[in-house]
Amino acid sequence: MNTLSPRTEIATLGEFGLIDRLTHGITPRHDTTILGIGDDAAAIRHSADRLTLVTTDLLLEGVHFDLTYTPLKHLGYKTAVVNFSDIYAMNGRPTQLLVALGLSKRFAVEDIEAIYDGIRHACDVYGVDLVGGDTSASLTGLTLSATCIGDVPSDRIVRRDGAHDTDLICVSGDLGAAYMGLQLLEREKRVFRGESDFAPDFAGREYLLERQLRPEARRDIVESLASADLLPTAMIDISDGLASELLHIAARSHVGCRIYEDRLPIDYQTAVMAEEFNMNLATAALNGGDDHELLFTLPLSVYDRAERLPGVRIIGHITRPELGCILVGRDGGEVPLQAQGWQGR
Ligand code: ADP
Ligand code: MG
Protein backbone atom coordinates (compact mmCIF):
# COMPACT_ATOMS: atom_id res chain seq x y z
CA MET A 1 0.00 0.00 0.00
CA ASN A 2 1.28 3.45 -0.90
CA THR A 3 1.63 5.46 2.29
CA LEU A 4 1.44 8.76 0.38
CA SER A 5 -2.00 8.17 -1.12
CA PRO A 6 -5.02 9.00 1.00
CA ARG A 7 -6.55 6.24 3.08
CA THR A 8 -10.26 6.22 3.84
CA GLU A 9 -11.52 3.79 6.45
CA ILE A 10 -14.40 1.64 5.12
CA ALA A 11 -16.35 2.48 8.28
CA THR A 12 -16.53 6.15 7.26
CA LEU A 13 -18.56 5.18 4.19
CA GLY A 14 -20.46 2.18 5.53
CA GLU A 15 -21.62 -0.68 3.32
CA PHE A 16 -23.92 1.30 1.07
CA GLY A 17 -21.57 4.26 0.77
CA LEU A 18 -18.83 1.86 -0.28
CA ILE A 19 -21.04 0.15 -2.89
CA ASP A 20 -22.03 3.58 -4.26
CA ARG A 21 -18.40 4.63 -4.51
CA LEU A 22 -17.31 1.40 -6.21
CA THR A 23 -20.16 1.33 -8.68
CA HIS A 24 -20.57 5.06 -9.31
CA GLY A 25 -21.14 5.87 -12.99
CA ILE A 26 -21.52 2.26 -14.11
CA THR A 27 -24.23 2.19 -16.74
CA PRO A 28 -25.39 -0.84 -18.74
CA ARG A 29 -23.72 -1.39 -22.12
CA HIS A 30 -26.24 -3.94 -23.33
CA ASP A 31 -29.87 -3.32 -23.96
CA THR A 32 -30.45 -6.79 -22.47
CA THR A 33 -29.45 -5.30 -19.06
CA ILE A 34 -32.83 -4.09 -17.90
CA LEU A 35 -31.85 -3.45 -14.28
CA GLY A 36 -28.30 -3.30 -12.87
CA ILE A 37 -26.84 -2.48 -9.45
CA GLY A 38 -29.15 -1.21 -6.77
CA ASP A 39 -32.01 -3.67 -6.36
CA ASP A 40 -32.39 -7.12 -4.79
CA ALA A 41 -31.43 -8.73 -8.10
CA ALA A 42 -30.38 -7.62 -11.57
CA ALA A 43 -32.80 -8.20 -14.46
CA ILE A 44 -31.76 -9.35 -17.92
CA ARG A 45 -33.95 -9.73 -20.99
CA HIS A 46 -33.54 -12.92 -22.99
CA SER A 47 -37.04 -13.16 -24.36
CA ALA A 48 -39.83 -10.80 -25.26
CA ASP A 49 -42.05 -11.45 -22.28
CA ARG A 50 -39.79 -12.73 -19.47
CA LEU A 51 -36.86 -11.32 -17.54
CA THR A 52 -33.98 -13.32 -16.05
CA LEU A 53 -33.08 -12.30 -12.50
CA VAL A 54 -29.60 -12.72 -10.95
CA THR A 55 -28.45 -12.17 -7.39
CA THR A 56 -25.44 -13.16 -5.31
CA ASP A 57 -24.65 -13.30 -1.59
CA LEU A 58 -21.53 -14.02 0.41
CA LEU A 59 -21.47 -15.69 3.83
CA LEU A 60 -18.24 -15.57 5.82
CA GLU A 61 -17.34 -17.52 8.92
CA GLY A 62 -16.95 -15.21 11.89
CA VAL A 63 -18.89 -12.42 10.17
CA HIS A 64 -22.17 -13.99 9.04
CA PHE A 65 -22.09 -17.23 10.98
CA ASP A 66 -20.38 -18.80 13.96
CA LEU A 67 -19.79 -22.54 13.70
CA THR A 68 -19.86 -22.89 17.50
CA TYR A 69 -23.62 -22.94 17.28
CA THR A 70 -24.50 -23.12 13.59
CA PRO A 71 -25.24 -26.66 12.34
CA LEU A 72 -23.61 -27.12 8.92
CA LYS A 73 -26.80 -28.45 7.36
CA HIS A 74 -28.68 -25.35 8.46
CA LEU A 75 -25.88 -23.18 7.13
CA GLY A 76 -26.24 -24.76 3.69
CA TYR A 77 -29.98 -24.31 3.81
CA LYS A 78 -29.65 -20.66 4.83
CA THR A 79 -27.05 -19.92 2.13
CA ALA A 80 -29.51 -21.05 -0.53
CA VAL A 81 -32.60 -19.51 1.02
CA VAL A 82 -31.19 -15.99 1.48
CA ASN A 83 -30.56 -15.93 -2.27
CA PHE A 84 -34.04 -17.22 -3.09
CA SER A 85 -35.40 -14.43 -0.91
CA ASP A 86 -33.78 -11.77 -3.14
CA ILE A 87 -35.43 -13.31 -6.21
CA TYR A 88 -38.85 -13.36 -4.50
CA ALA A 89 -38.26 -9.71 -3.59
CA MET A 90 -38.37 -8.96 -7.33
CA ASN A 91 -41.69 -10.86 -7.48
CA GLY A 92 -39.78 -13.60 -9.33
CA ARG A 93 -39.25 -17.33 -9.03
CA PRO A 94 -35.77 -18.80 -8.32
CA THR A 95 -34.78 -21.45 -10.86
CA GLN A 96 -31.02 -22.13 -10.68
CA LEU A 97 -28.32 -21.86 -8.00
CA LEU A 98 -24.51 -21.80 -8.15
CA VAL A 99 -22.45 -22.27 -4.98
CA ALA A 100 -18.80 -21.34 -4.47
CA LEU A 101 -16.88 -22.69 -1.46
CA GLY A 102 -13.65 -21.66 0.25
CA LEU A 103 -12.55 -24.50 2.55
CA SER A 104 -9.78 -24.66 5.10
CA LYS A 105 -8.20 -27.97 6.21
CA ARG A 106 -10.27 -27.83 9.38
CA PHE A 107 -13.20 -29.25 7.44
CA ALA A 108 -13.65 -32.92 6.59
CA VAL A 109 -15.53 -34.22 3.57
CA GLU A 110 -18.43 -35.13 5.85
CA ASP A 111 -18.68 -31.50 7.00
CA ILE A 112 -19.01 -30.25 3.45
CA GLU A 113 -21.51 -32.99 2.72
CA ALA A 114 -23.59 -31.73 5.62
CA ILE A 115 -23.58 -28.22 4.09
CA TYR A 116 -24.64 -29.74 0.78
CA ASP A 117 -27.44 -31.73 2.44
CA GLY A 118 -28.82 -28.36 3.49
CA ILE A 119 -28.33 -26.79 0.06
CA ARG A 120 -29.95 -29.78 -1.65
CA HIS A 121 -32.87 -29.73 0.75
CA ALA A 122 -33.46 -26.02 0.12
CA CYS A 123 -33.33 -26.67 -3.64
CA ASP A 124 -35.90 -29.48 -3.23
CA VAL A 125 -38.22 -27.37 -1.09
CA TYR A 126 -38.08 -24.33 -3.40
CA GLY A 127 -37.84 -26.24 -6.70
CA VAL A 128 -34.43 -24.88 -7.73
CA ASP A 129 -31.68 -26.63 -9.77
CA LEU A 130 -28.11 -26.58 -8.46
CA VAL A 131 -26.20 -26.00 -11.70
CA GLY A 132 -22.62 -25.18 -10.71
CA GLY A 133 -20.19 -23.31 -8.52
CA ASP A 134 -16.54 -23.29 -7.60
CA THR A 135 -14.40 -24.93 -4.90
CA SER A 136 -11.14 -23.65 -3.53
CA ALA A 137 -8.82 -24.12 -0.58
CA SER A 138 -8.82 -21.23 1.89
CA LEU A 139 -6.16 -20.37 4.46
CA THR A 140 -8.60 -19.87 7.26
CA GLY A 141 -12.27 -20.41 7.81
CA LEU A 142 -15.23 -21.21 5.64
CA THR A 143 -16.56 -19.01 2.85
CA LEU A 144 -19.83 -19.68 1.10
CA SER A 145 -20.98 -17.69 -1.88
CA ALA A 146 -24.17 -18.39 -3.77
CA THR A 147 -25.55 -16.96 -6.98
CA CYS A 148 -29.17 -17.47 -7.80
CA ILE A 149 -30.89 -17.13 -11.16
CA GLY A 150 -34.62 -16.69 -11.45
CA ASP A 151 -37.25 -15.33 -13.76
CA VAL A 152 -40.31 -13.14 -13.83
CA PRO A 153 -42.79 -12.09 -16.52
CA SER A 154 -41.64 -8.64 -17.77
CA ASP A 155 -44.88 -6.98 -16.69
CA ARG A 156 -44.74 -8.51 -13.16
CA ILE A 157 -41.24 -7.43 -12.03
CA VAL A 158 -41.31 -5.35 -8.83
CA ARG A 159 -38.40 -3.03 -8.12
CA ARG A 160 -37.46 -0.83 -5.18
CA ASP A 161 -38.22 2.40 -6.98
CA GLY A 162 -41.96 2.28 -7.69
CA ALA A 163 -43.55 3.43 -4.41
CA HIS A 164 -45.94 6.41 -4.64
CA ASP A 165 -47.43 8.89 -2.22
CA THR A 166 -50.35 7.31 -0.26
CA ASP A 167 -49.29 3.70 -1.02
CA LEU A 168 -49.74 1.26 1.84
CA ILE A 169 -46.58 -0.13 3.45
CA CYS A 170 -46.91 -3.85 4.12
CA VAL A 171 -44.65 -6.40 5.78
CA SER A 172 -44.92 -10.19 5.90
CA GLY A 173 -44.46 -12.40 8.97
CA ASP A 174 -42.92 -10.92 12.08
CA LEU A 175 -39.77 -8.96 12.81
CA GLY A 176 -36.85 -9.10 15.22
CA ALA A 177 -37.02 -12.83 16.01
CA ALA A 178 -33.86 -13.76 14.11
CA TYR A 179 -32.00 -10.99 15.89
CA MET A 180 -33.21 -12.15 19.30
CA GLY A 181 -32.23 -15.71 18.32
CA LEU A 182 -28.72 -14.46 17.61
CA GLN A 183 -28.55 -12.64 20.96
CA LEU A 184 -29.64 -15.82 22.71
CA LEU A 185 -27.04 -17.97 20.93
CA GLU A 186 -24.30 -15.44 21.64
CA ARG A 187 -25.25 -15.27 25.31
CA GLU A 188 -25.20 -19.04 25.73
CA LYS A 189 -21.87 -19.18 23.93
CA ARG A 190 -20.34 -16.68 26.34
CA VAL A 191 -21.76 -18.38 29.40
CA PHE A 192 -20.62 -21.86 28.43
CA ARG A 193 -17.39 -21.06 26.64
CA GLY A 194 -14.75 -23.60 27.58
CA GLU A 195 -17.10 -26.12 29.18
CA SER A 196 -17.21 -29.49 27.47
CA ASP A 197 -20.72 -30.43 28.59
CA PHE A 198 -22.21 -27.38 26.93
CA ALA A 199 -25.94 -28.03 26.92
CA PRO A 200 -27.88 -24.78 26.99
CA ASP A 201 -31.58 -24.89 27.62
CA PHE A 202 -33.40 -23.34 24.69
CA ALA A 203 -36.83 -24.71 25.63
CA GLY A 204 -39.58 -22.33 24.57
CA ARG A 205 -37.16 -20.36 22.42
CA GLU A 206 -37.20 -22.69 19.41
CA TYR A 207 -38.89 -20.16 17.16
CA LEU A 208 -36.14 -17.58 17.72
CA LEU A 209 -33.39 -20.10 16.99
CA GLU A 210 -35.15 -21.34 13.89
CA ARG A 211 -35.53 -17.81 12.58
CA GLN A 212 -31.80 -17.22 13.01
CA LEU A 213 -30.40 -20.60 11.99
CA ARG A 214 -32.88 -21.87 9.44
CA PRO A 215 -34.83 -19.04 7.82
CA GLU A 216 -37.34 -19.52 5.02
CA ALA A 217 -37.93 -17.31 1.98
CA ARG A 218 -41.46 -15.98 1.46
CA ARG A 219 -42.49 -17.77 -1.70
CA ASP A 220 -45.95 -18.10 -0.16
CA ILE A 221 -46.34 -14.31 -0.02
CA VAL A 222 -45.37 -13.89 -3.68
CA GLU A 223 -47.92 -16.60 -4.53
CA SER A 224 -50.69 -15.10 -2.45
CA LEU A 225 -50.07 -11.65 -3.97
CA ALA A 226 -50.45 -13.25 -7.41
CA SER A 227 -53.61 -15.13 -6.50
CA ALA A 228 -55.15 -11.96 -5.03
CA ASP A 229 -54.20 -10.29 -8.34
CA LEU A 230 -52.07 -7.74 -6.47
CA LEU A 231 -48.87 -6.27 -7.89
CA PRO A 232 -46.78 -4.31 -5.36
CA THR A 233 -45.51 -0.92 -6.52
CA ALA A 234 -42.16 -1.61 -4.76
CA MET A 235 -40.68 -4.54 -2.86
CA ILE A 236 -37.48 -5.51 -1.01
CA ASP A 237 -36.52 -8.36 1.27
CA ILE A 238 -35.63 -7.53 4.84
CA SER A 239 -32.08 -8.69 5.39
CA ASP A 240 -30.61 -5.67 7.22
CA GLY A 241 -33.65 -4.66 9.27
CA LEU A 242 -36.97 -3.03 8.40
CA ALA A 243 -35.72 0.55 8.91
CA SER A 244 -32.79 0.16 6.54
CA GLU A 245 -34.89 -1.53 3.83
CA LEU A 246 -37.71 0.99 4.06
CA LEU A 247 -35.17 3.79 3.68
CA HIS A 248 -33.91 2.06 0.52
CA ILE A 249 -37.43 2.00 -0.95
CA ALA A 250 -37.96 5.65 0.04
CA ALA A 251 -34.63 6.79 -1.44
CA ARG A 252 -35.06 4.85 -4.68
CA SER A 253 -38.69 5.88 -5.09
CA HIS A 254 -38.07 9.53 -4.04
CA VAL A 255 -40.80 9.41 -1.42
CA GLY A 256 -41.19 9.70 2.34
CA CYS A 257 -42.89 7.24 4.67
CA ARG A 258 -44.73 6.96 7.96
CA ILE A 259 -44.85 3.76 9.94
CA TYR A 260 -46.49 3.10 13.27
CA GLU A 261 -44.71 1.38 16.14
CA ASP A 262 -47.91 -0.26 17.35
CA ARG A 263 -48.38 -1.85 13.92
CA LEU A 264 -45.00 -3.62 13.84
CA PRO A 265 -45.57 -7.40 13.75
CA ILE A 266 -43.68 -8.98 16.65
CA ASP A 267 -43.88 -12.55 17.91
CA TYR A 268 -44.54 -13.24 21.58
CA GLN A 269 -41.19 -15.04 22.08
CA THR A 270 -39.37 -12.05 20.59
CA ALA A 271 -41.06 -9.73 23.06
CA VAL A 272 -40.25 -11.98 26.02
CA MET A 273 -36.62 -12.26 24.98
CA ALA A 274 -36.25 -8.49 24.45
CA GLU A 275 -37.55 -7.95 27.95
CA GLU A 276 -35.12 -10.50 29.36
CA PHE A 277 -32.24 -8.77 27.57
CA ASN A 278 -33.52 -5.35 28.60
CA MET A 279 -33.63 -4.32 24.95
CA ASN A 280 -36.01 -1.98 23.24
CA LEU A 281 -38.46 -4.19 21.35
CA ALA A 282 -39.13 -1.68 18.58
CA THR A 283 -35.38 -1.35 17.98
CA ALA A 284 -35.05 -5.12 17.63
CA ALA A 285 -37.95 -5.17 15.15
CA LEU A 286 -36.70 -2.15 13.18
CA ASN A 287 -32.97 -2.84 13.12
CA GLY A 288 -32.45 -6.53 13.88
CA GLY A 289 -31.25 -8.23 10.73
CA ASP A 290 -31.84 -11.59 9.04
CA ASP A 291 -35.64 -11.59 9.06
CA HIS A 292 -35.94 -12.40 5.33
CA GLU A 293 -39.48 -11.14 5.29
CA LEU A 294 -40.86 -9.12 2.38
CA LEU A 295 -41.51 -5.39 2.66
CA PHE A 296 -43.72 -4.01 -0.09
CA THR A 297 -46.02 -1.18 -1.03
CA LEU A 298 -49.51 -1.42 -2.55
CA PRO A 299 -51.84 1.29 -3.87
CA LEU A 300 -54.31 2.61 -1.31
CA SER A 301 -57.14 1.60 -3.67
CA VAL A 302 -56.55 -2.11 -2.89
CA TYR A 303 -56.72 -1.63 0.89
CA ASP A 304 -59.41 -4.28 1.39
CA ARG A 305 -57.50 -6.96 -0.48
CA ALA A 306 -54.22 -5.97 1.18
CA GLU A 307 -55.80 -6.31 4.61
CA ARG A 308 -56.98 -9.83 3.79
CA LEU A 309 -53.56 -11.11 2.66
CA PRO A 310 -52.62 -13.93 5.04
CA GLY A 311 -49.50 -13.26 7.12
CA VAL A 312 -49.24 -9.64 6.01
CA ARG A 313 -49.55 -6.52 8.16
CA ILE A 314 -50.08 -2.94 6.96
CA ILE A 315 -47.66 -0.87 9.05
CA GLY A 316 -47.97 2.58 7.52
CA HIS A 317 -48.04 4.53 4.30
CA ILE A 318 -45.87 6.34 1.79
CA THR A 319 -45.79 10.14 1.89
CA ARG A 320 -44.39 13.01 -0.14
CA PRO A 321 -40.57 13.15 0.06
CA GLU A 322 -40.46 16.44 1.96
CA LEU A 323 -42.23 14.80 4.91
CA GLY A 324 -39.24 12.49 5.48
CA CYS A 325 -39.24 8.97 6.88
CA ILE A 326 -40.99 8.87 10.22
CA LEU A 327 -41.67 6.34 12.94
CA VAL A 328 -44.78 7.20 14.95
CA GLY A 329 -44.32 5.87 18.50
CA ARG A 330 -46.99 4.28 20.70
CA ASP A 331 -47.41 7.62 22.46
CA GLY A 332 -47.93 9.43 19.14
CA GLY A 333 -44.44 10.97 19.21
CA GLU A 334 -42.59 11.11 15.90
CA VAL A 335 -38.95 10.20 15.32
CA PRO A 336 -36.97 10.02 12.08
CA LEU A 337 -36.48 6.44 10.92
CA GLN A 338 -32.83 5.44 11.18
CA ALA A 339 -30.91 2.54 9.75
CA GLN A 340 -28.28 0.71 11.74
CA GLY A 341 -26.83 -1.61 9.16
CA TRP A 342 -23.42 -3.05 8.55
CA GLN A 343 -20.75 -0.42 9.07
CA GLY A 344 -17.62 -2.15 7.79
CA ARG A 345 -16.33 -4.34 10.57
P1 ADP B 1 -29.20 -7.36 -0.75
O1 ADP B 1 -29.23 -6.95 0.70
O2 ADP B 1 -30.52 -7.37 -1.40
O3 ADP B 1 -28.39 -8.63 -0.99
P2 ADP B 1 -27.09 -5.46 -0.98
O4 ADP B 1 -27.51 -4.48 0.04
O5 ADP B 1 -26.04 -6.46 -0.64
O6 ADP B 1 -28.40 -6.20 -1.51
O7 ADP B 1 -26.61 -4.70 -2.28
C1 ADP B 1 -27.31 -3.58 -2.79
C2 ADP B 1 -27.07 -3.49 -4.28
O8 ADP B 1 -25.69 -3.28 -4.56
C3 ADP B 1 -27.43 -4.78 -5.04
O9 ADP B 1 -28.01 -4.40 -6.27
C4 ADP B 1 -26.10 -5.48 -5.26
O10 ADP B 1 -26.11 -6.26 -6.43
C5 ADP B 1 -25.14 -4.29 -5.41
N1 ADP B 1 -23.78 -4.62 -4.94
C6 ADP B 1 -23.41 -5.01 -3.70
N2 ADP B 1 -22.07 -5.18 -3.62
C7 ADP B 1 -21.56 -4.90 -4.85
C8 ADP B 1 -20.25 -4.90 -5.42
N3 ADP B 1 -19.19 -5.23 -4.69
N4 ADP B 1 -20.12 -4.56 -6.73
C9 ADP B 1 -21.22 -4.26 -7.46
N5 ADP B 1 -22.47 -4.21 -6.99
C10 ADP B 1 -22.67 -4.53 -5.69
MG1 MG C 1 -32.32 -8.07 -0.73
TrEMBL record:
Q: Which family does the UniProt entry place this protein in? A: Belongs to the thiamine-monophosphate kinase family.
Name of the gene: thiL
- Per the UniProt entry, what species is this protein from, by scientific name? Tannerella sp. oral taxon BU063 isolate Cell 6/7/9
Do you know which Pfam families this protein is assigned to?
AIRS
One Gene Ontology term from the biological process aspect of the record = thiamine diphosphate biosynthetic process
What InterPro entries does the record point to?
PurM-like_C_sf, PurM-like_N, PurM-like_N_sf, ThiL-like
Name of this protein:
Thiamine-monophosphate kinase
Binding-site residues for Mg(2+) 1, renumbered to this chain: 56-57, 134
Task: Cite any additional comment in the entry.
Answer: Reaction mechanism of ThiL seems to utilize a direct, inline transfer of the gamma-phosphate of ATP to TMP rather than a phosphorylated enzyme intermediate.
PurM-like N-terminal domain residues are: 38-151
